[in-house]
Amino acid sequence: MSIVVIVNMIVSLGILLGGLSMKQSSGSSGDYSMGFRTKRAMSSNNAWSFANQKCGILWLIIGIISFILTVSAVFMIQNERTGSIVQVIILVFIIVSAIASAIMVEKQLKSRFDNNK
How far apart are CA 98 and CA 92, in angstroms? Predict the structure, then answer.
C-alpha cells in the first residue's frame, strides 16, 4: 500500500471528524474552542451556528466522498504508478475542496451577517 493511500485515508477521516465536530459545536453557544473559527463566524451566536452547520455538512460530504474514492482506487487500479497518480489527484481534491468550502461559508457569512452593507 502506497504512502499516499495512507495519507488520503488519514486526511479523509480527519475531514470527516472535523465535519462532525463542527456540526456538534454549531449548537453550543459561547464555546468557541472548536469549530469554524473566523472573525466573522465568531461575531455572534447565530453566525457561529450557521458557519459550523454549513461547513460541518460540507466537510462530512467531502470526507465521505474522498474516503470512498481512496478505497475504490486501491481496489480498481492495479498499476502501482497509475494508482499513485490517482491518489495524488484525490489528495489535491480533498485539499481544494476543504479550502473551497471554507471560502464558500465565509462568503455566505458575509452576505448574511455582515452589518457593513
Answer: 10
Q: What does each C-alpha distance from 96 to 5, 16, 73, 111 come to in angstroms?
A: 17, 15, 19, 22
Containing structural domain, residue 92: 3-29+37-113
Tell me the whole-structure pTM to 2 decimals: 0.86
Contact 5, 15 (CB under 8 A): no
Residue 117 is given by DSSP the state -
Nearest to 63 by CA among 101, 16, 96: 16
For the record, the C-alpha cell of 11 comes out as 486526511
Q: Quote the number of domains for the chain.
A: 1
Q: Please tell me the predicted confidence (pLDDT) of residue 66.
A: 95
